[in-house]
Amino acid sequence: MGKEIVLSGIRATGNLHLGNYYGALSKFVRMQDDYDCLFFIADLHALTTSPDPKQLHENVKNIICEYLAAGLDPEKATIFVQSDVPEIPELYLLLNMHVGIGELMRTASFKDKARKQLGIKSESEDIEKEIIGTDSNKRVNAGLLTYPTLMAVDILIQKAHKVPVGKDQEQHLELTRRFARRFNSFYGVDLFPEPTNFDFGGAPVKVPGLDGSGKMGKSEGNCIYLIDDEKVLRKKVMRATTDTGPTEPGQAVSAPVENLFTLLELTSTPEVVKHYRDAYADCSIRYGDLKKQLAEDILKVTLPIRERYMEIRGDEEYLGRVVKAGAEKARERASKTLKEAREIMGIRKFY
Ligand code: TRP
Fold it and tell me: What is the pTM for the complete model shown?
């Protein structure tokens, strides 16, 4: 008791990759002992962009298994599925009464995704007009607009203090604080704490992709999944983008090759990294060797996860137990907060 409450979630839109692992999952694992942790799968959020009834449940299941395989321990942390907590959608409706459509429309992630849904390419084009539009076939769903409300509720309903998320989620966290403050001050209460990002100290981890571009991401087809098998993983690494190789000693490293070094730094030992850095500097490097080494070192991280994943996935009974216990714990707090919010807002029963 008395530990700070930490909460974070991952959208159920596919398997987790090495970027998710170093950016989030491995940190969650380290936090379990020191904080009162809740980690969940945001399946309702997934519906805002990819409603696919054939895929949704599988996606949720994959992520739970990946959470557990990577070392999240249901004895220590509360692991649950968002849609198992009906208090969340109810509070989402209530909180929306205090959220402005303007502030939601100005959110960067909304503008981005709305542009995609409308098929607008240029950044400069004014999307507000397009959103109101006239063509009923082209629409931006209201769930996408209110995505930040739902995320705020995930956090506020558990009264979380710390929310470990990446840079791309900072704005959502800022909105969460604003909504909490607004609710508290409108009703003259102190219901919701204002959550902050979790500061791990040091530079943020950057996990680059294999295609020479920026970071590893599900949508970019440049990533290594935690559950890739040996063959697939080796093939992906061997096909990673490089260049024609250094021609002068001490030459600057190109971006795609630097990405491979960054991945090596994450997964390998300092000696190995130094070996290849030196080989680059004196032009003796062979990218084939570097890639073979990189594949081996990545496999050392991912294979044990893959093996546990396979075991857990096959054990429906265990999974069911974990998810049920998580839902119960999550609902216990959520229903308390919801009850308080309803009372504060003046919702009372006649019977
Ligand atoms: N929006 C987050 C993402 O895309 C996922 C998320 C949903 C979340 N609800 C949350 C993260 C609450 C932290 C806390 O990654």
Answer: 0.92
